[in-house]
Design a protein that fits this description.
2 domains; six-stranded mixed beta sheet; alpha/beta; Nitrilase/N-carbamoyl-D-aminoacid amidohydrolase; Rossmann fold; 16 helices
């Protein structure tokens, strides 16, 4: 059987345009002689549709569009993802479904069995589970069609399974001799390798070929990498879709292919590609043509600026330098060097006159109080005011520049440097920022070495350094990874780090700064556990005082 995999980028809720993408991809597959054309999970409505699912008008529009798609089909089969609705009086009776069409009609519907309800997934809020799975005979082949999570429960791969039911194994037991999985699998580094390993084990042990088509695109903070995969019955990865862009290719189950040994790229290359793609998608889908970055002379804002240029082009990136009395001359010079290298537009606006006037007006109210972080935050908030004013006036999308390490411990200012519409590197630890920048500079100095080599500083007081307040970033990030991503607690982390005082301080900072993160801009997700929707921690709590 010849299967055309259409790895498409759809937009949540844009049913008309999504429908046209499906029809166009199907027609291409028909013209190329495919027997079956397949599209990702919920490709008609976009993934994840969230509370749009609860709108009756939205569900009806999806149903009408599905029939319109089916009406154009000929004897070539078409599988795409959408929502379907039944008449059961128990549960939502709304399903995440794979629809098989040919010869002008919907011929078969397979609902999703395993409804994820962890990390960034909240499908149980909207969808009921399939009552059963069934094989469908098409052109002499017994198709076993499943949807995303349904294939993530293989007993041969997982030491501990999340679900008691294995819908794919049931399909094989019912006689399936070709597996089709339509997916929308959110990206984090390591996910491509994990898919490769898991699907390889499944196809090898069950001696069955698989066509796995995955959504590509970015939906706010979630990035979908694509990287669709086809496996032969020996468990070999034989075809691999492009990462972070749309793709189309045909898998002939009767052909012989050279195995692809590795699907994953280096951390630096893959994460940088994901971040560039995330910015590009966010701007295109929200119709922002230009972005604004506050350029400080530090490595974080330099990296965000570089990412923006790669995503949108140098003509669409604007930066502003906002020096104060504490800004070093080197910061201005280093920023200007980066501006020249990237060929972007810039302006410089001093915040000092407004800082001085603000402090003058507050002097009576602050009488008798020593200077502290309050004055530092005033500077950051004045910069935030400048940035938002420029963004509003020129219709720029303001990109925030804080990294994950700073966000974790609250080393950032609400309504100051946290101001903006998208947090580009807020899921990248500071130590990884350096790795990515060194990767960018591997062949040529793009981000000036002066920026890379200087000691990190917010420059909000004289001779300030980040390490005046925080542990060295390598140590800090090691603690944060264990706490945030591995769910280790104080005693276990201390046994590894050896310094209880430092561990206690870091964990306390993470816990008490949840209120800041709840008000932060969406952060592009590239790790297993990002701040935002995937990490739901209470602001008011008494677990660790």
């Amino acid at each position: 059987m010849k299967i055309a995999l259409c790895q498409v980028d759809t937009t949540i809720g844009d049913i008309e345009n999504n429908k046209n993408k499906i029809i166009n991809g199907y027609n291409r597959g028909v013209n190329d002689g495919a027997d079956l054309v397949i599209f990702p999970e919920l490709s008609l409505v976009g993934y994840p549709p969230l509370d749009l699912v609860e709108k009756q008008e939205f569900r009806q529009a999806a149903g009408i569009a599905a029939k319109e798609i089916a009406a154009v089909t000929v004897d070539t089969g078409l599988v795409f993802g959408t929502i379907t609705e039944g008449e059961d009086l128990i549960g939502t009776d709304i399903h995440n479904s794979a629809v098989l069409c040919f010869n002008g009609k919907i011929r078969f519907v397979q609902n999703k069995t395993l409804i994820p309800n962890y990390d960034v997934f909240d499908e149980m809020r909207y969808f009921d589970s399939a009552k059963d799975v069934n094989v469908f005979e098409f052109k002499g082949v017994n198709l076993g069609i499943s949807i995303c999570e349904d294939i993530w429960n293989d007993a041969d791969y997982w030491y501990k399974r999340r679900y008691s039911v294995d819908p794919v194994k049931k399909l094989i037991n019912k006689g399936a001799n070709l597996l089709i999985n339509i997916s929308a699998s959110p990206y984090h580094y390591g996910k491509i390798r994990e898919r490769h390993e898991m699907l390889s084990v499944l196809t090898k042990y069950d001696k069955i070929p698989l066509a796995y088509v995955c959504h590509v695109g970015a939906q706010t903070d979630l990035i979908f990498d694509g990287a669709s995969m086809c496996f032969d019955s020996d468990g070999n990865l034989v075809l691999l879709g492009k990462a972070f862009e749309e793709d189309y290719f045909i898998y002939d189950t009767c052909a012989k292919y050279e195995p692809i040994p590795n699907a994953e790229r280096s951390f630096e290359e893959e994460v940088l590609g994901a971040l560039i793609y995330g910015v590009k998608e966010y701007c295109e889908k929200l119709r922002f043509k230009k972005v604004l970055v506050g350029l400080s002379g530090g490595i974080d804002s330099a990296l965000v600026t570089y990412i923006a240029v790669q995503a949108l082009g140098k003509e669409n990136v604007n930066v502003v330098l906002m020096p104060s009395e504490f800004s070093s001359g080197g910061s201005i010079i280093d920023s200007e060097k980066l501006i020249t290298k990237l060929g972007i537009s810039s302006e410089q606006i001093s915040i000092q006159p407004i800082v001085d006037k603000t402090m003058e007006m507050l002097s009576e109210a602050f009488k008798g109080k020593k200077a502290d972080v309050t004055e530092e935050n005033i500077q950051a908030r004045i910069r935030g005011m400048y940035l938002m004013a420029l963004a509003n006036k020129h219709n720029y999308l303001l990109l925030t520049t804080g990294n994950k390490s700073e966000m974790a411990v609250g080393y950032c200012t609400l309504y100051g440097d946290m101001s903006g519409g998208l947090a580009v590197i807020a899921d990248v630890y500071k130590s990884d920022v350096y790795k990515i920048v060194n990767y960018i500079n591997k062949n040529d100095e793009i981000i000036p070495y002066e920026i890379v080599n200087k000691a990190p500083s917010a420059e909000l007081r004289l001779n300030q350094k980040d390490q005046d307040s925080l542990p060295e970033y390598e140590l800090l990030d090691k603690i944060l990874r264990m706490y945030l991503e591995e769910n280790k607690e104080k005693n276990e982390i201390t046994s590894i780090i050896g310094d209880e005082k430092v561990v206690k301080k870091v964990l306390r900072l993470v816990d008490i700064n949840e209120f800041k993160r709840k008000q932060a801009a969406p952060a592009l997700r590239v790790s297993r556990k990002a701040f935002g929707y995937g990490r739901r921690y209470p602001i008011v709590q008494g677990w660790r005082k």
